[in-house]
Amino acid sequence: MGPITAFAVYLTLWWTVLFAVLPLGNRTYHEEGMKVSDGGDPGAPINPNLKKKFITTTWVSAVFWLIIMAIIKFGLITLPPLAQTH
Fold first, then answer.
1. At what angle do helices 3-21 and 50-73 cross, to 10 degrees?
2. Is 84 part of any domain?
3. What's the CA gap between 63 and 32, in Å, rounded?
4. Among residues 30, 44, 71, 76, which one has the fewest Cβ atoms lying within 10 Å of its Cβ?
5. Residue 46: which domain range?
6. pTM above 0.70, yes or no
């Protein structure tokens, strides 16, 4: 597997993990019993902690990516070759 493909796998994995991590630990205005003003959504998080979630997403993705790369490198799961046209 080339470096561009490996990076594409990591990027896809990163986005998938991000969407799994985003809802963790959020407290909404409704859950806290706070009034929302100026047309805000009561289901919106009070403090989404995006920096912490991006860091968590990065290291979790790196761990999963290393596992996937090890599986591919050691041939535990083989990838089929692309179809060749003649």
1. 140
2. no
3. 34
4. 76
5. 21-73
6. yes
Q: What are phi and psi of 45, to 5 degrees?
A: -70, 145
Measured in whole angstroms, the distance separating CA 59 from the mean position of its chain's CA atoms is 10
Total structural domains in the chain?
1
* Max Cα distance, the chain (Å): 67
Residue 10 lies in a domain: no
Which pair of tokens denotes residue 47? 């403090």
Given a cut of 70, the residues of the chain with pLDDT beneath it are 79, 82-86
Cα-Cα-Cα-Cα torsion 6, 12, 15, 21, nearest 10 degrees, comes to: -80
> 3-state SS string over 5-19?
HHHHHHHHHHHHHHH
Q: For 6-23, what is each residue's pLDDT tens digit?
A: 999 999 999 999 999 999
Q: Tell me, what's the pLDDT at 37?
A: 79
How far apart are the two ends of the chain, measured CA to CA in Å?
A: 23
Is 38 a member of any domain? yes
